[in-house]
From TrEMBL:
Residue ranges annotated for the Xylanase inhibitor C-terminal domain, each copy included: 106-209
TM helices/strands, residue ranges: none
Name this protein carries in UniProt: Xylanase inhibitor C-terminal domain-containing protein
Source species taxonomy: Eukaryota, Viridiplantae, Streptophyta, Embryophyta, Tracheophyta
Species of provenance: Solanum commersonii
GO molecular function terms attached to this record: aspartic-type endopeptidase activity
């Protein structure tokens, strides 16, 4: 039922983890401004907020203001959002809780601005003729993003660090940016593919995995979640 030009009311039902269906009969939606909708990916028709003030957390205390996100590396399968405390199950083919062995770091509040800077070309490219494939992508040196302490690092494997731009040519999947901007490093969607990120809002921390391909699973092999 539409209430006005900027808000609407409808039934919202989501599957929280571990497998509990939560439903709100009169959930209030707001419409996305047209300038924002033009920046969404093809096929995307809206945005769901999961921040501290999100009604998705406020309306049901069982969700515990905790959620996990995984982006698929395949154009034929969807990403996934795990809502609630877990466990977060996938299959490989047996059921595995992928939220057990995460590294956590502090989440610092930042104002986020939606921008459309022009995409730069990859700056480092090389021949891929003699690079073999592994279960975590091309066999190239790993990259460690070290966070608040040496033991808290995010390990990036070839599947998330290089991209095949044409036959026999790979490029490092990072681009330079204006160092006057903050933060100085932005983790892109390509680096997030087949990784698990868990946001624990009350404790202001983020948990992350390395590539879940190490566990021989993928984002399409999920259980008890809501698709993203």
């Amino acid at each position: 039922m539409q209430l006005g030009q900027e808000i609407a009311e409808d039934v919202l039902a989501i599957g929280s983890s571990p497998g509990v269906r939560v439903t709100w009969s009169r959930f209030i939606f707001t419409f996305v401004e047209s300038y924002l909708s033009r920046r969404l990916a093809n096929g995307v028709i809206g945005i769901a907020g999961f921040g501290h003030e999100s009604p998705l957390h406020a309306l049901d205390p069982t969700l515990n203001k905790k959620f996990g996100v995984r982006l698929s590396s395949s154009t034929r399968s969807r990403g996934v959002i795990f809502i609630g405390s877990g466990p977060y199950y996938v299959y490989n083919p047996k059921k595995v809780d992928i939220s057990k062995d995460l590294v956590y770091t502090k989440a610092l509040p930042k104002n986020v601005t939606l921008v459309e800077p022009p995409m730069k070309r990859f700056g480092v490219c090389f021949s891929s003729k003699n690079i073999r494939s592994t279960k975590v992508g091309p066999d190239v040196p790993v990259i460690d993003f070290v966070l608040h302490k040496p033991s808290a690092f995010w390990r990036i494997y070839g599947a998330n660090s290089v991209v095949q731009v044409k036959k026999d040519v790979m490029c490092l999947a990072f681009v330079g940016r204006d160092q006057t901007w903050e933060p100085s490093i932005v983790i892109g969607g390509y680096q997030l593919e087949e990784n698990l990120l868990v946001f624990v809002l009350p404790r202001k921390k983020i948990g992350f995995s390395s590539s879940l391909k190490l566990q021989q699973t993928s984002c399409s092999m999920y259980d008890n979640i809501i698709q993203a």
